[in-house]
Amino acid sequence: MHFETKTIHAGVHPDPSTGAIMTPIFQTSTYVQDGPGHHKGYEYARTQNPTRTVLQDNLASLEGGHAAYCFGSGLAAMDAVIKLLRSGDSVLASNDMYGGSFRQLDKVFRQFGIDTRLIPMQDPAHVEASIAPNTRLIWIETPTNPLLNMVDIEAVCHMARSRGIMVCVDNTFATPYLQNPIRLGADLVLHSATKYLGGHSDVVHGVVVCSSGELAEKIKFIQNASGAVPGPMDCFLILRGIKTLHVRVDRACENAAKIADFLLSHARVKRVLYPGLSTHPGHAIAKKQMKKFGAMLSFDLHDESMEAAFKVLAGTRLFSCAESLGGVESLIGHPASMTHASLPREERMKSGLTDTLIRLSVGIEHVDDLIEDLRQALDS
User: Fold this and answer.
1) Residue of 195, 251, 348, 359 marked catalytic
2) Res 171: pLDDT
3) What's the pLDDT tens digit per position in 180-223?
4) What CA–CA distance (Å, rounded) separates 204 from 77?
5) Catalytic pick from 6, 79, 98, 234?
6) Among 32, 6, 76, which residue's Cα sits nearest to residue 239?
7) pLDDT averaged over the chain?
8) In the prediction, which pLDDT does 142 show?
9) For the residues 162-173, what does the mean pLDDT come to?
10) Which of 196, 204, 315, 324 is the most buried (most CB within 10 A)?
11) Is it true that the peptide bond before 143 is cis, omega within 30 degrees of 0?
12) Nearest CA to 75 among 187, 205, 227?
């Protein structure tokens, strides 16, 4: 079955009681049993919910995994993955990872004895050389947020597997439409489903997809035991969004490529970070492991003051200054003061995340209008 068909049909069936083609919102906290232990597969809504079950089956199919488990947010999903580790274990992660992911590793789990080492991951040989005796998890973002660096998933997974190290790939930027880490060897795939999977900026959600039954049982246990589950309405909204995922992402990718070309030609832009550009250092890797190059891009200004970046953000009319990404509308943000403010400035600058870096989440509006909006903001 092709991906485009899976988004609409995988795991989804008409409601047997009514024939409703859309999965019902099972807004209930508990389920009546014929007697203790005699039920229809559902006992309590923290553990299971029929709307959530359909979504999880759909997501597992899209990523080519054994099973998927949904959570109240992307960071709640990450929390479940890190709980697979024990005190004394170490995580190897990208030094330009999402600020919220860094905060969870550095401020929450470090106090429980789980250490994190941040390194650039563009060179697989450097990743291999950075593995320590207590490394138990390699955490990959690709493309990274917000520097759009590429990590060779297959190469890293190959070296990790030979050492018994788990690999989890945050696939939020790429979506399962553009990239399938499990097919490249990853053990776990994470999404902030708030972004492209939902696609309409109206729900907060997360998911972990597991490559094996063993990992699935562990994540399922943590999901129930910790209880950071989404409500049925949230699951319904993600299911609805997934049905148009491929259509939205196709259009957004097309827009992003044209905007990247425009920004390259503008006199006030110093550099453009977009994997679709042939000059991007990770272009070959992106071309190898992605269907298209995504709809996220970042750029720096020649004027290196933070005030210059703020003026551009204040000057756009169609690009809305806001956190998040992946919706139908275009967003503009300043990572140093917004999404990545929790990263120490020294760490940011070391990785190349400057004070003037501006991140765009390109939506599905007409590209000419988006380019004109950026032109007038930069010119002003």
Assistant:
1) 195
2) 98
3) 999 999 999 999 999 999 999 999 999 999 999 999 999 999 99
4) 12
5) 98
6) 6
7) 95
8) 98
9) 97
10) 196
11) yes
12) 205
pLDDT band for 330, please (50, 70, 90 cuts): very high
User: How many angstroms separate the Cα of 307 from the Cα of each of 112, 324, 334, 357, 379?
Assistant: 39, 22, 11, 11, 15
Is residue 44 part of the annotated active site? The answer reads no
251 in catalytic set: no
Tokens of 37: 């232990």
Q: Catalytic residue, from 170, 187, 300, 373: name it.
A: 170
Sign of CA dihedral 310, 312, 315, 316: negative
Bridge partners, 44 (sequence order): 30
What SS3 string covers the chain? CCHHHHHHHCCCCCCCCCCCCCCCCCCCCECCCCECCECCCCCECCCCCHHHHHHHHHHHHHHCCCEEEEECCHHHHHHHHHCCCCCCCEEEEECCCCHHHHHHHHHHHHHHCCEEEEECCCCHHHHHHHCCCCEEEEEEECCCCCCCCCCCHHHHHHHHHCCCCEEEEECCCCHHHHCCHHHHCCCEEEECCCCCCCCCCCCCCEEEEECCHHHHHHHHHHHHHHCCCCCHHHHHHHHHHHCCHHHHHHHHHHHHHHHHHHHHHCCCEEEEECCCCCCCCCHHHHHHHCCCCCCEEEEEECCCCHHHHHHHHHHCCCCEECCCCCCCCCEEECCCCCCCCCCCHHHHHHHCCCCCCEEEECCCCCHHHHHHHHHHHHHC
Domains with residue ranges and CATH for the chain: 3-242 (3.40.640.10), 245-379 (3.90.1150.10)
| 110 classed as catalytic | no
AA letter at 212: S
What's phi and psi for 35, nearest 5 deg? -175, 170
**Would you call 379 a catalytic residue per the annotation?**
no
Structure tokens at 255: 């827009």
What whole-number distance in Å separates Cα of residue 283 and Cα of residue 121?
15
